[in-house]
Hints:
The chain is mainly α and about 120 residues long. It has one domain (about 5-115). About 85% of the residues lie in helices and about 0% in strands.
Amino acid sequence: MNYTVISYSLYLVLTISLTIWVARTLFNNGKVFLVEIFAGQEDLANSVNKLLLVGFYLINIGYAVFTLDAMGNVTDMVQMIEKLSRRVGAIILILGAMHFFNLFVFFELRKRSRRNRVSAA
């Protein structure tokens, strides 16, 4: 049995699935913030949201594929589980960090947008 090929395959399936799930969650729930940031301009908010989604996919899936060979050769089931948990755990941490970074940026933009509307009034 070739544990290396199985490990790589599982790693890609898991990381791409997690990336898609997180990206869809951010996409669906981030629109509200973007609409407010862009003062109700839904077309602009939707366009920015789609661009953010593409960038999120490119960064996360690109990183997962780029680091695929970091698992090295896998010789048995125990090693496969250990390496997969380490690599998938790293991806989860990266996705979490990107999520909090996105939230931080959204809240900062929202605060700035509100300040600009108050000072313009």
